[in-house]
Sequence to fold (207 residues):
Amino acid sequence: MTAATGVGVHAVPGPGDDADSDASAIERSWADPDVFAVLFNRYADDIHRYVARRLGTEAADDLMAETFVIAFQQRRRYDLARTHARPWLYGIVTNLVGRHRRAEARRLKALSRVAGTAPAESEPLEDRVAARVSAEGSRARLAGALATLPARNRDVLLLIAWGDLDYTEAAEALGVPVGTVRSRLRRALGGSDPAALHDETEETDRG
Fold:
C-alpha cells in the first residue's frame, strides 16, 4: 500500500513517549504537512484490514485512502488532548463504511451461504480437515448473525472484535458515551462473552 495523495512517507518513530505521540505528530503536521505520514505508517494497515473484513479488499483500498485524506484535511480540528489518534481514524472509516451498508449486508449473507455449504464428505478424515470444517461452520453462523444486526450495534461489535478497540476507544470513535457502547454490545452479543467472539471472528479472515 502507498500513502494517500498529499501524504508523504517518512521513517516512523515509536509512539511510546509524548514527543512521538499521535497528537504531537498531528500538531507538527500543521506547519509541516509531510509529518502526517507518521499516522499513515502507524495505522494504515490496521484500517485496511478492518475494512477488508467488512467490505472486501477492493473497497478497503479505496476507503483506507479516503480515511487518511479526510483525516489530513481535518487535522487542525483534532483534539490534541487525545494522545492516540487510532479511535479518531476508526471513527472516520466507520462513517465511510456506513455508506456501504447494503453491500456489507450482501457480503455477510453471501459469506454465510458459501461457508455453510462447505462439503465435509469429500475431504479426508484428518484432524486438520475436521478443524477446517468446524471453522467454516463458525464463519457461516457469525456472518449470518452479523448480517441481521442493526447497523449501530454491528459497528460497536466490529470495532471491538475486528478493530481491537476497547470500550472507551469505541465510544470515542463513535462519539457516544461508554455506557451506550456497553448497551449496544450486549444487545449485539445477546449476553455472549466479547473475548470469545473476538477469537471466533478471526476465522472470517482465514480459509
In short: The CA atoms of residues 54 and 177 lie 24 Å apart. Residues 1-17, 115-139, 198-207 have pLDDT under 50 and may be disordered. Residues 127-148 form the longest helix (22 residues).
